[in-house]
Amino acid sequence: xxxxSDATPDESAAPEHRGPIxxxxxxxxxxxxxxxxxxxxxxxxxxxxxxxxxxxxxxAEAGFARDMQVxxxxxxxxxxxxxxxxxxPDIDRLAYDMATVQAQQAGQMYxxxxxxxxxxxxxxxxxxxxxxPALAGAEGEHADHDASTHAxxxxxxxxxxxxxxxxxxxxxxxEAERIFFTLMIRHHEGALEMSEALLARSTHxxxxxxxxxxxxxxxxxxxxxxxxxxxxxGPVEV
Length: 238
Known about the structure:
Blueprint: H1 22-48, H2 60-85, H3 89-115, H4 162-170, H5 173-199, H6 205-231
Helix pairs in contact: 1-3, 1-6, 2-3, 2-5, 4-5, 5-6
């Protein structure tokens, strides 16, 4: 697997500030706040796990860290593609934020595996961790994310295919923006499903903290992208 730290967008490419913060700016600020809170939670989480055994290579935590890295790094790629294509400043700002946050989180998960002395590539097919039963006593909506709808080696939920990514790369203007939002909404929905599945299978404070941060930030981005997509004519077949 590629070192996730290599995917961090160039800071020199950050979008310039353009007037009032607006709804996109609010999402960007909110996402950055979530990243900060995750960093703080990580520090406290390390203290709280000093007496706790590290996850094993076939654990939900390790599987989540490996698979969500792949998932996030595709999100970075999609965001960078639309930044090269669209001339809409709001989309530029939103895509930059998505690429930055997802690259940072992918790097964090890469670091977990290094700290746990686990290989970056697992010995099982991808998504195997999601086929295992939820923890006894899992509460609320997390308990619904059991093994019934997945099989080892299944595609990650929401992951775009090679042809879909190439369709985005080849498109221009509003068509490219519609393809991007169509793909990225699905992509975010898949990340929410994976995060919910992790919360049903783990009590590890560092990992569950990140999963909750993903749920919070990407749910807000889905709502925003849905509005922006509707303004451009709605989803496209891709």
